Amino acid sequence: MPTNLRGALAPMTVTLVAAGVALAPATQAESTAAARSATSTATATAAASPDISLANTQAHLNQLQSIATANGGNRYTGRAGYTASIAYVKGKLDDAGFTTTVQTFSTSAGQSSNLIAEWPVGHANNVVMLGGHLDSVSNGAGINDNGSGSAGVLESALAYAASGQTAKNRLRVAFWGAEELGLLGSKHYMSSLSTTEKNRIKVYLNFDMIGSPNPGYFVYDDNPAGNGARDELTAWYTAKGIPWEYIDVQGRSDHAAFRSYGIPTAGIFSGAETLKSSSQAQKWGGTAGRAFDPCYHSSCDTTSNINATALDRGADLIGHMLWLYAAKDYGTTPQPTGNLLQNPGFESGAVSWTGTSGPITNNSGRPARTGAWKAWLGGNGSTSTETVQQSVAIPSTATAATLSFWLRTDTAESGSTAYDTVKVQIVDGSSTTTLATYSNVGTNATYTQKSFNITAYKGRTVVVKFLMNEDSSLQTSFVVDDAAVATS
């Protein structure tokens, strides 16, 4: 969490709310017996919540610590530690079946990036987002700020992928870059979205510092009209018998970029540099007169700076909200009409597309069919594999569905051997169907339109995927533009 963007750090405004019974000082594990002793309503609420593995969450923190240790003691924007952090999280999500996008942007400290991961199931017009920043300050590993929130979001996403749940809504998780430089990653992401794409985001939940060593249990006092997320957070704490307080975080974290566009936001926080009061210590345990996190923005923010109970509770609450919002009923929101693909001509860069970082480009070395951007796959002249893909929900009411796109190819290869290829695929759950394969043989340096009947997939959410493989010798460029999934 960055310091106050207007200058000196202002004290946080907190409002105490009587919520549940007072707790004894926190132990190092949640009490199952205490949860079972709650009212029947509270028990039912708790039973609906997943138990996110504390050990796995701690393992992610250990990995982030190892990355920092190997890279100058930090994971700061523009440095190797941050790049390695992105690679670690991306690898975990890729392996779990998420479609991931690395969105790069420039900062005063060098290039940074956001990692956006989407579960490729659910209503395309109802996007629910959870996230936290992945970067640290320059003088520390940033394990509480904000390895803790990142680890909680990551482990909750992995648990959901392994659970066999079928998401009703489109689940998207984000790991922001350059938050410590002024929320730059989340601001860049939101500014890159069209109005239509912003309107698809129904809620954004932010998790920035959930494992403070002298913890409190704060809920963002951030409740735009129609936002029930704040109340769902407090209801979970109440059902667990955990007292909580509202807090005004004054736009100091990544939810601010969403709130500025009128998107409902909420979040939790275990405290930073302010001092715990006597009444808070009586309610939550810990030490009065001591900062919630004495290592805030310091070199001592390592894995030794984490309270396991706070981390466990925070991760479980993240999991609860992920499960809740993935299945939330948003009524009869219509599915997209016209072209079901988002950003079909790539003019917003990699927005809405996932896969390999780099192919979606405005590099003038190969022309776009329209505009300036396209997906340029291959052209490397070396052994490489690249993908560009997007999930799309095809309405069950469709009488016909067609995938189309424009393709331009050129090659330095010769002869009739297919050395380099691009496959057009439909991924339907664990099944992949290749609709066509194009190669260095019979290339056409002018754009031609390709079209495929995909009516068989109506009523399903599938992934449209372009998969390129190039060998180690001469280049072949496959340039895709102006894609569409149209229904009638």
How would you characterize the overall build of this protein?
The chain has 11 helices and 19 strands. The chain has 488 residues and is an alpha+beta fold. The protein folds into 2 domains: 314 residues, Aminopeptidase; 134 residues, Jelly Rolls (Sandwich). It has a 9-stranded mixed beta sheet with strand order 1-8-7-9-6-4-5-3-2, sandwiched between helices. The chain has a 5-stranded antiparallel beta sheet with strand order 10-13-18-15-16, with no helix packed on it. Strands 11-12-19-14-17 form a 5-stranded antiparallel beta sheet, with no helix packed on it. 51% of the residues are buried. About 9% of the residues have low confidence.
Write the layout of secondary structure elements.
Blueprint: E1 13-17, H1 32-36, H2 40-47, H3 54-70, H4 80-96, E2 99-107, E3 110-118, E4 123-133, H5 143-163, E5 169-176, H6 184-192, H7 195-199, E6 201-207, E7 218-220, H8 229-240, E8 244-248, H9 255-259, E9 265-269, H10 278-284, H11 308-326, E10 354-355, E11 360-361, E12 374-378, E13 384-393, E14 401-411, E15 421-428, E16 431-439, E17 448-453, E18 461-470, E19 476-487
Parallel strand pairs: 4-5, 4-6, 6-9, 7-8
Antiparallel strand pairs: 1-8, 2-3, 3-5, 7-9, 10-13, 11-12, 12-19, 13-18, 14-17, 14-19, 15-16, 15-18
Helix pairs in contact: 2-8, 3-4, 3-5, 4-5, 5-11
